[in-house]
Amino acid sequence: MAIIAWPKVRQRILSADQWVTVQKRFTPWANASLVILWVTGFLQMTADPNYEGFLAVDSLWAKAILIKHLAVIGMMIFGIYIQWRIQPALARLALLENKHPEQAADRRENLTRQEIRLGRLNLICAVAVLFFTAIATAI
What we know:
Layout: H1 5-10, H2 16-47, H3 60-96, H4 101-138
């Protein structure tokens, strides 16, 4: 989404309806991916010989895993906010566009900017997960 769809939205190549369709198709996959990431990460962490217990952060491996978990939690928070606050607001706004198009355009622009900003933060968290997984794996 962050790499392919958002630039198309900013360039006005995707219409609002197309963007909503992309979101509806993407959301279940994103949620499933986060659940799988969380479960597999937990299983791999507890099976690792470097794991010394809950919140035992006394090695580089443990610090990398802690930061990785914080990044995953960040991804979950950003995703929940986008799914439960911004996307419903955009859907409500689509209903109001017929009655007050000038007000809806300003509000849509604001919500779209906010969604893109949170999406970028989510992307940064995803890169952090990969980075700190690589660090933990290299140890």
